[in-house]
Amino acid sequence: MEEILNIKGLEVVLKDIRGDEIKILYSVDLSIKKKESLALVGESGSGKTITARTVMGLLPEHMSVKKGEVFLCGRDVLKASQQELRDIRGVKAGFIFQEPSSYLNPVFTAGSQIYEAIKKEGLKGDEKKAMCMKVLKDVGLTEDVYWRYPHQLSGGMQQRVMIAMAIVNHPFLLIADEPTTALDVTTAAGIIELLKNLTESYGLSLLFITHDISLAASFTDKIAVMYAGRIVEASHPLRIMGSPLHPYTEKLIACLPERYKPGERIKTIEGAVPDFRSLPEGCPFHPRCPYQMDICRRKEPPAITIDGFTVRCFRYGDNVETDRCE
Amino acid sequence: MEIMWKLIDVSKRYHTGKGREILALDRIGMEIYKGETFGVIGESGSGKTTLGKVMVGLIEPSEGRIYFRDRCLTGLKGKELLNLRKEFQIVFQDPYKSLNPRMRVKDAVMEGIRKGMGRKEKREKVKELLSMVGIEPKIMDNYPHQFSGGERQRISIARALSTSPSFIVCDEPTSNLDLSVQAKILNLFMELKEKFHLTYLFISHNIKVMDFIADRVAVMFKGRIVEYGKREDVMKHPLHPYTEVLISSAFFKKVEIIEKEGITSGCAFSSLCPYVKERCYIEKPELKEVEKGHLVACFRI
Known about the structure:
Helix content of chain A is 29%, strand content 23%. Chain A is of the alpha/beta class. Chain A has one domain: P-loop containing nucleotide triphosphate hydrolases (Rossmann fold).
């Protein structure tokens, strides 16, 4: 199958005030095929959004790509000029954000903002408007939304307008950055349903960013778990939820309240997410890991592929050491 | 079981100008027993937060009576109210907005501590409270911006505990937090409940969290309680069509909600209800006890 997005060995650094470089993405590999949906799961500060922003060429000024390649539909985004990037954004890939209310312009109608997003040239006004109406219908809104202002729409409707803007140019990839976090459960369920349908009807590939691993597992084809700027495990949702390989994934799933009977204590992850400025040596998860071994403190585990699933942990592959230290 | 709170026909109206008004709470009647975790679920705008705020006295109800341990709170003023208020506290949703950025952590926690204590005593008490919620007392001189979201929520909890309350309103305390942090905060709530014999009103739109933490659950829709009862009953055998929708959407089954122009005189859910009958548009259903301790406001039952 055709590969829409392919990220190879991506490394992003952040320059702080003193001019020191802090690595915030470490050797990220990702690939999404046509009509495939991939969920990027992790806690805040794990590098999910930065990965997505790199794909769109939207990194903040103080961050830069150190190494790696990002191929979107066969073109290297990192080598593209500003002009070429403008063609990629919206046309090749659409982006929707967590809080739709802060990304819609309050002084323009929803319709005019979708109209403005149309990049196809040589169209008459009427044709463009017809396109807007069609895309509004596709995202489950009525035509009168075209004349409404963002404040007249509910959160769910605003998010649908955002999706309409992102897909009006029929992109190959849709990046959704926590699109349901700010929404109610019933509204969120509607948005998820819509995204699922769009991957079919529009032939979209989906990069779905969330911190809710059970939500991700409920509808995506692949899950990549991020921790401290690394993809620690990439696997099939059923496999991740059933028998996770990486200790972090295992611990993260154990944090879900629905896995416990009322009154039980939830098994939490000891410690906190490490600061990027002072990442522990070796595997970044080792201070919180119940299975830590000697080697974990010295060396960073490489990505190992087992039956097509990737994991970064010394417990798998040829590196297993017999002396386990508790 | 001892009844701690009793709400009788509590309503809250807001005037929106031009003579129009919104019913944020529509004749709420419920009881909360001592020592239980009473969950309130519903979407945003259903009146969950208003209910919590009315109970702790941050909002004055327009109608109805609220009893706390057989004492009527409505109409209570001055010192009496002040003394009673120490008994109940609230923990807010957004730990970034609910802590004063210009107040050191120790001062925020110290505010609630009884007067008449010496400065040293107060400091000791703050240390004790902070270590109880898992914050190292040595960083009590820091400002809120130096803490992460989970830590701030812990500080808010310490602040709530400073008046040694018996009842705490938890207004979506974990919805802004990461999964791993949420798990820790939920554990903390359960620990504190056992330690201090607390009673909680736990507000959340996360049904999975509710299914885990609550003893009894009330489902709110547009300012009304449409169903309430034991957690198992409400979660496993929902009777109201809205509860059905809410629970099934939490587990991401397909739900069809198409909002039509509502007719307000009848049941608030009538415009969305799949089982709607003519009567639903005209009359408002009242809460009826269907099984023991399981109440539903629906004509279908």
